[in-house]
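Encoded backbone
================
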Amino acid sequence: MSGVVERRSIDVVPDEERYGTAFSQFTLWLGANLQITAVVTGALAVVFGVSALWALIGLLMGNLLGGAVMALHSAQGPRLGLPQMISSRAQFGVRGAVVPLLLVIVMYIGFFASGTVLAGQAVGELTHLGDTAGIVLFALITGVAAAIGYRVVHALGRIAGLVCALTFVYLGIRLLQRADLGTLLDDHSFSLPMFLLAISLSASW
């Protein structure tokens, strides 16, 4: 069991215990992002008034910008063997790192809360347990996976990535069959503040 439960947490991971690959990072983040919270976040651009065409462009630009920053962090991680928030002390200092740390705590609480509510409601609907029981059940499963740690999280990421990718392919096909994409994309109205909002939504994600 000691080889399964997370032991390092924020400690330095010795070289002999590092076995992650670029593909394992891909499946982890694919599974983490191909889910209902990401769909809702992306849809907010249109909800707030961005035309579908400019929303797609803004979301794509935001993903590229946000991904570039994360790519730099991912290159830094293997060299230092430390989690991102700990290694940020090199840029901000020990005391200065408190500011991004607090922001990340707020962000992750919001991410966990929104994801748990949406996914928990889906679990409650599928199991007929109701929203509250579904949310509690999903939160418990998530908490156990996080406590056990790295290996379980990556295993779940591989499973979730495959399942969610197949689901999104199916939903994409259904969307093409049922939606009038020509009409949606024909609206070329542009608003700079709303366009920047679309970029920030995906970049911060």
User: Anything to note?
Assistant: The radius of gyration is 19 Å. Residues 83 and 192 are 36 Å apart (CA to CA). The mean pLDDT is 81.
